[in-house]
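Quick check before the chapter quiz. The format below is the same one you will see on the exam, so make sure you can read both the input and the output lines.
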Amino acid sequence: MKTQVKEVLNSKRSKKEKLSYLVEYYGKTSLVILGVLIFSGMLIWQMTRPKDTSTMTVAVVGTAEEVNPLRKVIAENEPLKNIFTQEDKRQVLTVTDEDTVMRQKYVVQIAAGEMDLVLMSKSEYELTAKQGGLLDLSEKIPELKGQDEFKEKEGLSLKAWLKTEETVPDFYFVIPKNAPHIEETIKLLGNK
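Here is the expected output.
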């Protein structure tokens, strides 16, 4: 301790005056140290806490002309409505060429392994399947293996999934290989 501080503490000043002197002398330094400690603690907590990966992310991808008729099919079909309804534990994206911000978010989520299920138009499917990165659904959903309507191994056509003869938009369910909830997504596809 500095001699000046010792003199003040040993003097005959009142306790209130001594405390006032100490606060004035050490106050700024103490606040800075406290701030650094709080900031460091928050930073360490942010870096070490486990990520919440319980949220499932699903997307509908295509041009606006392709997606608009699909909206009606989703609204009229209960199993589809259940998949593509925003919930606490499910994030739903609608990605069209016209919405570049949503398209960028979708691409980032696919690359980061945060996308669980995608219902994409045939044109999107053909481009994506060529690039790889999609889960082989014929291995994960064995009852689909060998069925005529299940011609693609990475994509399950919407028409085959609905098991309908009606005309429906030409879309395919796909699961990225890096999807965080593969088993849950397969169960979701199976619960019709």
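If your answer matched, good. Strands lie at 56-61, 90-95, 117-121, 156-157, 171-174.
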